[in-house]
Amino acid sequence: MAFGFKTITSSTMLLLIFAGLIGWWYTGKAINHGPGILAPDEPIQENISNAPMFMHNDYFITPMATFEVKARVLARKNYSWGRESDLSPIDFVLGWGRMSDESVLEYIRIRQATRFYFWRVREFPIPRREIETHSANMHMIPANREIERTLKKVRQGDLIAIKGKLVRAEAPDGWKWVSSLTRTDTGNGACELVFVEEFEIVTYN
Q1: Residue 151: closest CA among 27, 59, 60, 29
Q2: pTM recorded for the entire structure
Q3: In degrees to the nearest 10, what's the CA dihedral of 15, 20, 25, 27?
Q4: pLDDT 10s digits, 48-97
Q5: Distances from the Cα of 19 to the Cαs of 8, 29, 107, 143, in angstroms?
Q6: pLDDT tens, 137-171?
Q7: Cβ distance 143 to 197 under 8 Å?
Q8: Contact assessment for residue 162 and residue 69, using Cβ atoms and an 8 Å cutoff
Q9: What are the b/e assignments for 11-50, b being 16+ CB within 10 Å?
């Protein structure tokens, strides 16, 4: 029996660390646009029934609705642990309407943890219900590697456009993950599970 390994030189290690820091800096640096609504339109959704199931990363995927949104990225988080990361390596907190306006967002503190989105304010710049219905934490399932690479380039503040499906994901052992089909819910189960078929980081002028 024999074992082998590759030796990484100190210079190579430094290059890898440097590249990692550059990647972290790029995705961690937020983009500021100044006041004004960047994404005025509501997400577009059409519920569907009896859509054919398909396999993706060894999971059964059932489309539940077509989905399209142009929104501002209020926060982003990569995930590499947990069963959900097999399908969705990244979550975006998205905002539209006045939740895409920097003059509103400066009063709202947003964070992500354990696949949830949390916000808090000292005083409400807009009504609470508007915050709840014009922002959402969305789990991204990239349809292919190219889309996944583009998703991972997204920074907080980017304006993005997504086309795809809201889906139910299931495994042979009974595990499942189901998308919300409304923007008006909150709490556990309120996140969208998006199978991303088209994706673009939009240039904003």
Answers
A1: 27
A2: 0.85
A3: 140
A4: 999 999 999 999 999 999 999 999 999 999 999 989 999 999 999 999 99
A5: 15, 15, 34, 26
A6: 999 999 999 999 999 999 999 999 999 999 999 99
A7: yes
A8: yes
A9: eeeeeeeeeeeeeeeebeeeeeeeeebbbeeebebeeeee
Fill in the amino acid letter for 131: I
Nearest partner of 113 among 141, 131, 91, judged by Cα:
91
Read off the tokens for 177. Answer: 């993950």
Q: What are 8's two structure tokens?
A: 């990484």
User: Nearest CA to 71 among 183, 201, 181?
Assistant: 201
* Helix then strand then coil, % of the chain, to nearest 5: 20, 40, 40
Share of the chain above pLDDT 90, in %: 80
The token pair that represents 198 in the structure block: 């088209």
| CA–CA separation, 83 and 99 (whole Å) | 31
